[in-house]
Amino acid sequence: xxxxxxxxxxxxxxxxxxxxxxxxxxxxxxxxxxxxxxxxxxxxxxxxxxxxxxxxxxxxxxxxxxxxxxxxxxxxxxxxxxxxxxxxxxxxxxxxxxxxxxxxxxxxxxxxxxxxxxxxxxxxxxxxxxxxxxxxxxxxxxxxxxxxxxxxxxxxxxxxxxxxxxxxx
Length: 169
Ligand SMILES: NC(=O)c1ccc[n+]([C@@H]2O[C@H](COP(=O)([O-])OP(=O)(O)OC[C@H]3O[C@@H](n4cnc5c(N)ncnc54)[C@H](O)[C@@H]3O)[C@@H](O)[C@H]2O)c1
Fold this sequence. Notes:
- With 169 residues, the protein is α/β, with parallel strands linked by helices.
- The chain has a single domain (3-168), classed as Rossmann fold, CATH 3.40.50.720.
- The protein contains six helices and four strands, in the order E-H-E-H-E-H-E-H-H-H.
- It has helices spanning 18-29, 41-52, 68-81, 105-130, 138-154, 163-168; strands at 8-13, 33-38, 58-62, 84-89.
- It has a four-stranded parallel sheet with strand order 3-2-1-4, sandwiched between helices.
- The longest helix has 26 residues, at 105-130.
- Residues 13-14, 16-20, 38-40, 64-66, 91-95, 114 line the site of nicotinamide-adenine-dinucleotide.
């Protein structure tokens, strides 16, 4: 385990299976704690148990990433349960074997909502905590400042505004 990351939490959307779970396992091996977000409740539980078995703290959150309000709500819950946020992996994505001219407007909208707006929701939901819009407490601000500080160190930056790099990675 890499001591450098011990204690930080990595948030992985679409983390219940596939590439998301693979990312989560790799991050756990580097010492990150994990917060998994997905719509698949049973798979989330299995994935969380697998991560805990490696010795890290892992929690699951059932949510549809296309839901803006839910992203902000869960981001707040994550900050309550973990000491410091470290990484956000916007992994969730859906696809279709159909071509552009074969899909319906509803299918197009759903893809945009999950794949594109989902990334925005989770980045923005986390940023809103920074602005104190949800909890508004000094304690919350200090936690988020530590998060950005960690990101700056992880990415080799000494200063500047690393927030968008941190939140969109
Ligand atoms: N597998 C590939 O070859 C491949 C190639 C290029 C890009 N990708 C991208 O990598 C990412 C992961 O791919 P994968 O193959 O592991 O996919 P996957 O379908 O196995 O896993 C995606 C996960 O996202 C979850 N999910 C779907 N919709 C959701 C929603 N609205 N809210 C929350 N969670 C939701 C699913 O339940 C699932 O657990 C996707 O963004 C995909 O587009 C995959």
